[in-house]
Specification:
InterPro entries: Peptidase_aspartic_dom_sf. 9% of the residues lie in helices and 38% in strands. Strands 3-4-5 form a three-stranded antiparallel β-sheet, with no helix packed on it. A two-stranded antiparallel ribbon has the order 1-2. It is globular.
Length: 69
Protein backbone atom coordinates (compact mmCIF):
# COMPACT_ATOMS: atom_id res chain seq x y z
CA UNK A 1 0.00 0.00 0.00
CA UNK A 2 2.87 2.41 0.75
CA UNK A 3 5.70 3.59 3.01
CA UNK A 4 5.50 6.02 5.93
CA UNK A 5 8.19 7.44 8.26
CA UNK A 6 7.16 7.53 11.91
CA UNK A 7 8.96 8.45 15.13
CA UNK A 8 9.07 5.46 17.47
CA UNK A 9 9.11 6.51 21.11
CA UNK A 10 9.45 4.23 24.14
CA UNK A 11 9.78 6.38 27.25
CA UNK A 12 12.80 8.66 26.55
CA UNK A 13 14.03 6.65 23.55
CA UNK A 14 12.92 8.09 20.20
CA UNK A 15 14.01 7.16 16.69
CA UNK A 16 12.55 7.78 13.21
CA UNK A 17 11.88 4.64 11.17
CA UNK A 18 10.38 3.74 7.79
CA UNK A 19 7.36 1.45 7.84
CA UNK A 20 5.88 -0.47 4.94
CA UNK A 21 2.09 -0.45 5.12
CA UNK A 22 0.59 -3.71 3.86
CA UNK A 23 -2.97 -4.93 3.60
CA UNK A 24 -4.35 -8.34 4.51
CA UNK A 25 -1.46 -9.78 6.53
CA UNK A 26 -2.06 -13.15 8.15
CA UNK A 27 -0.76 -11.84 11.50
CA UNK A 28 -0.88 -8.28 12.90
CA UNK A 29 2.60 -6.75 12.93
CA UNK A 30 4.02 -3.35 13.81
CA UNK A 31 7.79 -3.57 14.42
CA UNK A 32 9.99 -5.98 12.51
CA UNK A 33 13.41 -7.52 12.93
CA UNK A 34 15.03 -4.66 10.98
CA UNK A 35 13.83 -2.14 13.59
CA UNK A 36 14.79 -4.33 16.55
CA UNK A 37 18.26 -5.12 15.16
CA UNK A 38 18.92 -1.59 13.92
CA UNK A 39 18.00 -0.11 17.29
CA UNK A 40 19.95 -2.70 19.30
CA UNK A 41 16.77 -3.48 21.24
CA UNK A 42 16.88 -6.64 23.37
CA UNK A 43 13.71 -8.72 23.56
CA UNK A 44 13.53 -11.43 26.21
CA UNK A 45 10.43 -13.49 25.52
CA UNK A 46 10.95 -15.75 28.56
CA UNK A 47 10.90 -12.72 30.88
CA UNK A 48 8.45 -10.77 28.69
CA UNK A 49 10.78 -7.76 28.68
CA UNK A 50 12.21 -5.23 26.25
CA UNK A 51 15.48 -3.36 26.90
CA UNK A 52 17.13 -0.50 25.04
CA UNK A 53 20.92 -0.37 25.63
CA UNK A 54 22.45 2.74 27.20
CA UNK A 55 24.38 3.35 23.96
CA UNK A 56 21.08 4.28 22.30
CA UNK A 57 20.02 6.90 24.86
CA UNK A 58 21.62 9.26 27.34
CA UNK A 59 20.31 7.69 30.53
CA UNK A 60 19.67 4.25 32.01
CA UNK A 61 16.54 2.46 30.85
CA UNK A 62 14.46 0.19 33.03
CA UNK A 63 13.02 -3.02 31.67
CA UNK A 64 9.55 -2.70 30.19
CA UNK A 65 7.09 -5.52 30.79
CA UNK A 66 5.17 -6.76 27.76
CA UNK A 67 1.71 -8.06 28.56
CA UNK A 68 0.73 -11.27 26.83
CA UNK A 69 -2.61 -11.04 25.03
Amino acid sequence: MGVVELNIRIRDFEKPWLFHVLADLEYPCILGIDFIGGSKIILDFDRKSLAIPDSQINKVVEKVEIEKK
